[in-house]
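Listing S7. Sequence submitted for prediction.
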Amino acid sequence: MMRAWKIVSGGLFVVILILIAAMLWQNQQVKKELIRDYILHHSNIEYSLRLFIDEYEKSQDTEQLADDLFIAYGAATVTTRKPVNIHQLTGIPYINNVDFLYEIRDQFDFYLPGAVKAASDDARDGELTEAQYQNLQGYQQLLLEFMELTVDEDFGEKSVSDFEDDFKTFYEKNEVKISELINN
């Protein structure tokens, strides 16, 4: 009887260890997915801004730029939201933060929609200033640098710590540029 109890206890212990390992692995996978989604969303915004800026430089049509920037504004506002409806293996909603992701979000993404919206509104009124236009170009360039740093041939193979290093490098390298864009 005692031997059977030890076998059952040992088996239960092994099952618990396997479940813990699976949950830790899954936690890393969810974090990677959140980070990849964040990066790909920013690449979409960067591409849109680049396209809209190029079209504006060719046509000098502020009304068209205003319409285009309104679309970019919608995409930029999504960057300030927290992800929803992500569930772990147990079915429990995922609530763990990716701290470095939110640090960048607080420092950079929070101000991006406002800059795009202000430029869109002023372009619609025909009052787009050179400073606003340069601000848009600055955001587009920062987003491009972010993409070049984070998206490379091993994008799918990167670990959470690799992404964390990329984010820290980006922020440290561009802290002054980000501050200048925010304060313009």
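Caption to Listing S7: primary sequence and predicted structure tokens for the chain studied. The chain is about 80% helix and 0% strand. The helical segments are 2-59, 62-78, 99-109, 112-124, 130-150, 160-183.
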